[in-house]
From TrEMBL, chains A, E:
Taxonomic superkingdom: Bacteria
Gene: modB
Function: Part of the binding-protein-dependent transport system for molybdenum; probably responsible for the translocation of the substrate across the membrane.
TM region(s), chain numbering: 15-35, 47-66, 86-106, 135-156, 162-185, 197-216
The organism's taxonomic lineage, starting at the top: Bacteria, Pseudomonadati, Pseudomonadota, Gammaproteobacteria, Alteromonadales
Residue span, ABC transmembrane type-1 domain: 9-215
Protein name: Molybdenum transport system permease
TrEMBL record, chains C, D:
MF terms in GO: ABC-type transporter activity; ATP binding; ATP hydrolysis activity; molybdate ion transmembrane transporter activity
Keywords: ATP-binding, Cell inner membrane, Cell membrane, Membrane, Molybdenum, Nucleotide-binding, Translocase, Transport
Protein name per its UniProtKB record: Molybdenum ABC transporter ATP-binding protein
Record flagged with keyword Acetylation: no
Entries under PANTHER family matching the protein: ABC TRANSPORTER I FAMILY MEMBER 10
Species of origin: Idiomarina seosinensis
Domain ABC transporter per the UniProt entry, residue ranges: 1-232
Length: 229, 231, 353, 353, 229
């Protein structure tokens, strides 16, 4: 592995980490709203969240490139504010990844929130716990599984995704060239050995991370089995 | 009968035109699988049911030939034309100072690791000793077609692309600059009939068809120079 | 003082009642299954969306059109009909959930160790709720509510699933705590004995509405309508504090009763004596040679139909107070009992509170 | 006939008991919270993984080392401590879930309409469980179990959350159904009145082990240890069927008792009379001029300590049977009661079953 | 839209439909096992299921191409049995899609199964319901949300995914050229109008399908809100 490989690794981890983090922050309130509010808007919003998935990543990347680029709606607005447009930047691929993995975070969380015991929330309220405390002490532990799925699916999907990132990011080493793009480049150049080495590394790393997460989750949470008595 | 042809993206406009002619005259169907040369070569090695391959990169054709997958000779169709394409009017000439021009600009280039036009562009910049100045401005795409997208979308200001993939109506000389390469062989465009071809006769027929003299003008029109260009 | 004037619609069911609950007292809410008891408690707690009307607590508006105080800011605790323990937390974490910070806790009514002790939770502190039996879960729920040091305690059938021994113990201690800190409690219960033991006031509900309200003594007749049969509650005051053979003298008006001493704090307050009508027998003169040592002179006020055709409820006046006796019609004939006559009523007290 | 010889470990708790439950009878399982009652029922139902030992039902092995019959093939129904209604289904779908096909149902013990009626579920048939009150949910759970036409019915505190009227009604009908179809029932309950009203046999548990077993009459002493105080159960047989003023004559050995008629089927079987010791008063001679019309001659057999120091439990023999009276020590002194003496015991029956 | 477009549409729907169906069939028992068995194998299996995600799709496609192709382990075995190898065939891209979308089906289902009320299952068993009946009458209705997420995520992801399919299937019109590949191809050919039309059609269609599914799901299931009483 040379230095550009290491750069790609760091960048990938950053992208995966930020994407997952930001997704959780965005998806949580959205999922909460979807799960707990019975508005006519829920179904369309849920559908729209899933839509980026159905487009081929490069095509999605192309449209994002247009919107976030200097001539696009978002990019132009940013530039008129004296800021940079987002094409070919880390911020840009971050936005792309977030958009593209959004449903993997929103959907499991929504379902998780739907299953919460209203009884426990009510009790917590009578015990003086405000919204935040209820959220951290009741919702988060009960929905641990949902958060975990949201996080691991988003993270894994961000690691592997490259169509959007390649198009939107331009694969600039150290800025937007993530590992998946690098592996793709190696494979495309029939540089199979290099591709395989990187792939194996990525797989191994991901396996270790996922294993750790799932093993940690397996800690008995009280054995649902026996609540029946 | 039907021909399935694997072709590099830089061949797309030309082959579409030629196939139309072929179909009209021969009453045969031609279908294309366009992709990057590397991907296509990999697929052929793994048993893809293609009849011919048109490649923009001789290395891949050599790999196929090494694997004993070619049924005949490698036939050169011509040479690709590398151009620097601008998103807006630019009045580029040989005298233009590229370093100055490309300063603070985004320049799209096909990934030199595997895309021949990218390789060619990189080679050109190196040969001009300006690669280092320009490198920070480069953004990389999967292939030349995507490099065109990047320019087209307005996100990249310039792109090193193949003339053949620039839409005809946008090939105004004011927006592009043809780059004369030291070694055009780098962009040699060639095809070969594959061992896996179901109907070798038909495949050979198509191979001969595209070699006809009458299509030289067409080739040139679509950005592939059948003859060596002498400056 | 809790003032409630609310309306709530759930499908066909409509809760609509206005009542002023006494401060510092235990109010029992009594009524058949499905009459809206739980819904009332939940409404007071602020847990029922779509509630209309007003809920006021000691001059604070908790719920009104323009203003709704959040549940968590009402300083209440509610023991629900199901324990609803926090499944991901240990018993100890459940208990500490609602507890004020340690610094504040010092001055608090209910100390952690005392409550653990009272509900015998010591062995389970590190278990998860799923590893507890039904009754154990219920006890944790009660302890958790008490430890949050509520200003107002709402109990929805809190003794369900508890065995008799635990229940008596907890009720006695609850009463003690209640009296010491003048903690207002609303208690939903289907058990007359729980109501009688704990309640000062009784609210009887029927199909979402108030049927009647009043002190326990006033409401005793209503409670009687329930299956356990008619009963009476007599107020007695401590006598000259003569203790003899483990019996204590109490004044019932002018007359003296001898009752076994109890663990209740022997302050000078008057106590309540619960007497089931079926435990009262009537005689035309004082009975000798019998172990019935509490015989009081009473005057027959009237008769009421009893549940069984062969029996009658005899209403008696003992001084100012009312006593009910359930006797057979045959006995009434045999003894020639008529309104206005004086008789001797003998009984054993079912409970002293 | 249900034979159980099992062992089960859950953390510190160990269930270990062997017992042969009577066929066609109601066995009450009684014991303090956390002693393993629910775990026992669940073990019999085949719901506890890791169970060791044997469970046999009428010559079928349900659980043994080599062979475990699945819960769903045991033909049982279990009413759990919590209603556990199927949340996604309507009440009607819940009720029909365990019902046999209509063709089979005709010949069945429990008809759909009867059970709906018994548990007053008509108004809720199309509701979802979440729209029911606690007591209503509990009633649906009971009905659902009955409608599955079990060969063996396991009831885990089934009357929790029911009001007194519903409870009496359901218990009476349950008893009727049980007797008509000789349905074996295991009943877990903390309420002595439920046990006494329904049970033929009593199993008392303590910390996962059997403490004692026997018929209700034999076990009455043990039940007494619980808070409601000592009691006795007397067997009485129908007398010469003399009915007078709504009272019916019953034979208690040689003596006659007059009791209000009841709704119980007047078959010639003997019935059980439940008498709380605190309801029994003793006199040295027959009392006149009192409404106490059931006075039986009895011989003092001995004395037992009572819960309260001022009182004693007097053990009496009435013919062959045992009766307990709770009287104050003062009365014992005053009346000079000694073992061997004959006295008159007066009481009002608490319940006739 | 010409006939090749229509062919692609049919093919895409078939691929999406079959993938979703087969995924549900495979994922359900797997998720059940993961949710209900506390084996040391659970964490590694869960991690492995998620692994295909972290590879760039074309690279995954490349490896699948090797394994399923005539010289690969699977393909060679098939050929030795007188069957066809799986590269460049509909069956091949079906396998690729299934593998690639597996985590989206397995994970939400696992979490859903974890939340099931053991009490209700126990009651159902005592009422004589065998495993199958319990599954269909208790598990499926309670996990409706989980199944729906599994199905919609898998379906949407299969519609949009093209890296694996392109590599493994070779984009042969009428055989393996699905809509996403076609859109990609149009875009690549700078046939932006065609790409946009197809994309819009795909988005619209997906939106309608997803809307329908989520609206149907919104039917009140009993208002968890009030179970607390
Ligand atoms: N996983 C566990 N670890 C430790 N102890 C357990 C576990 N599961 C159950 N127990 C204990 O097993 C005992 C028996 O529980 P069970 O539910 O059978 O009691 P019960 O007799 O039904 O009580 P209740 O009347 O309160 O319902 C309880 O003391 C409980 O604490
Ligand atoms: N969504 C609803 N639709 C129709 N009726 C409802 C709904 N929710 C609750 N109810 C009805 O409201 C009434 C009051 O319920 P509540 O839980 O307050 O009764 P309760 O007095 O606590 O009864 P219990 O003693 O059985 O717990 C019940 O009759 C119930 O059926
Ligand atoms: O042959 Mo390409 O289109 O430069 O990858
Ligand atoms: Mg209630
Ligand atoms: Mg229990």
């Amino acid at each position: 592995m040379d230095s550009s490989d290491w750069q790609a690794v760091t960048l990938t981890l950053q992208l995966g980490g930020y994407t997952t983090l930001i997704l959780l922050v965005i998806a949580t309130p959205l999922a909460w709203w979807l799960a707990r509010q019975r508005s006519w808007l829920s179904a369309p919003v849920q559908a729209i969240v899933a839509l980026p998935l159905v487009l081929p990543p490069t095509v999605l990347g192309f449209y994002l490139l247009i919107w976030l680029g200097p001539e696009g709606f978002v990019g132009a607005t940013l530039e008129s504010l004296g800021l940079q447009h987002l094409a070919f930047s880390f911020e840009g691929i971050l936005i792309g990844s977030i958009l593209y993995s959004l449903p993997f975070a929103v959907q499991p969380l929504t379902e998780s929130f739907r299953q919460i015991s209203q009884g426990q929330l009510d009790v917590a309220a009578t015990l003086g716990a405000g919204w935040w405390r209820r959220f951290w002490t009741i919702v988060v532990p009960s929905c641990q599984g949902g958060f975990l799925i949201a996080a691991t699916l988003s993270f894994a999907h961000t690691l592997g995704e490259f169509g959007v990132i390649l198009m939107l990011g331009g694969s600039i080493p150290g800025e937007t060239q993530v590992l998946s793009v690098l592996i793709y480049d190696h494979a495309e150049a029939m540089n199979y050995q290099a591709a395989e080495n990187l792939s194996l590394g990525l797989l191994l790393f991901s396996f270790v991370v996922l294993m750790a997460v799932y093993t940690w989750q397996k800690r008995p949470t009280g054995g649902a089995r026996y609540v029946a008595r | 009968a039907e021909l399935t042809i694997a072709a590099a993206s830089s061949y797309r406009p030309l082959l579409n035109h030629l196939a139309q002619q072929f179909e009209q005259r021969q009453q045969h169907q031609v279908r294309f699988v366009f992709g990057s040369s590397g991907k296509l070569a990999t697929q052929i090695i793994r048993g893809a049911p293609f009849d011919l391959i048109f490649s923009a990169n001789m290395a891949y054709l050599k790999a196929l030939s090494d694997n004993d997958l070619l049924a005949g000779e490698v036939v050169t169709d011509g040479y690709g034309q590398l151009v620097l394409w601008s998103k807006s009017e630019a009045q580029l000439t040989a005298e233009t100072d590229l370093v100055k021009l490309l300063q603070q600009q985004r320049v799209a280039i096909a990934q030199p690791k595997h895309a021949p036009f990218g390789q060619a562009a990189k080679g050109y910049l190196e040969q001009q000793h300006i690669y280092h100045q320009i490198q920070p401005n480069l953004v990389y795409s999967e292939n030349v077609a995507q490099a065109v997208h990047m320019v087209h979308s307005g996100a990249a200001d310039f792109g090193f692309v193949a003339l053949s993939v620039i839409p005809l109506e946008q090939q105004s000389e004011t927006r592009m600059y043809r780059i004369a390469l030291e070694n055009e062989a780098l962009l040699r465009q060639a095809h070969a009939v594959l061992k896996s071809a179901k109907d070798k006769n038909l495949a050979n027929e198509f191979s001969r068809f595209v070699q006809r003299q009458e299509f030289d003008e067409v080739k040139r029109h679509y950005g592939i120079e059948p003859e060596r260009v002498k400056n | 003082m809790l003032h409630v004037d609310i309306e709530l619609q759930r499908g066909d069911f409509r809760l609509q009642l206005a009542h002023q609950f006494a401060a510092h007292k235990v109010t029992a809410i009594f009524g058949p299954s499905g009459c809206g008891k739980s819904t009332l408690l939940r409404s007071i707690a602020g847990l029922e969306p779509g509630l209309r009307g007003t809920v006021c607590w000691q001059n604070n508006i908790w719920h009104a059109q323009e203003r709704i105080v959040k549940t968590e800011q009402r300083g209440i605790a509610l023991v629900f009909q199901q324990p609803h323990l926090f499944t991901t937390k240990t018993v100890e974490a459940n208990l500490r959930y609602g507890m004020p910070r340690a610094s504040v806790l010092k001055a608090c009514a209910m100390q952690f160790e005392d409550i653990i002790e009272l509900l015998s939770l010591q062995p389970f502190m590190q278990r998860k709720p799923a590893q507890l039996s039904g009754g154990q879960q219920q006890r944790v729920a009660i302890a958790r509510a008490l430890l949050s040091q509520p200003q107002l305690l709402l109990l929805d059938e809190p003794m369900n699933g508890l065995d008799q021994a635990a229940k008596s113990q907890i009720m006695a201690d609850l009463k003690r705590i209640q009296q010491r800190f003048a903690l207002p409690i609303l208690l939903v219960s289907h058990h007359v004995d729980e109501v009688v033991q704990l309640a000062d006031e009784v609210v009887i509900m029927r199909e979402g509405k108030l049927l009647s309200t009043g002190t326990l003594q006033q409401q005793v007749g209503q409670l009687s309508l329930h299956d356990e049969g008619p009963l009476s509650v007599l107020s007695i005051s401590p006598g000259d504090n003569n203790q003899k053979d483990g019996l204590l003298a109490w004044q019932l008006g002018q007359q003296t009763l001898w009752l076994p001493t109890t663990g209740l704090p022997a302050n000078s307050d008057s106590k309540r004596l619960l007497v089931w009508a079926r435990d009262v027998s009537l005689a035309t003169g004082p009975l000798k040679n019998t172990s019935l040592n509490n015989q009081v002179r009473a005057q027959i006020v009237g008769f009421e139909r009893a549940q069984h055709d062969a029996e009658m409820v005899v209403e008696l006046a003992v001084g100012e107070q009312q006593l009910r006796a359930l006797v057979t019609k045959a006995s009434i004939e045999r003894l020639n009992l008529r309104a206005g006559y004086c008789v001797y009523a003998a009984f054993k007290a079912a409970a002293l509170h």
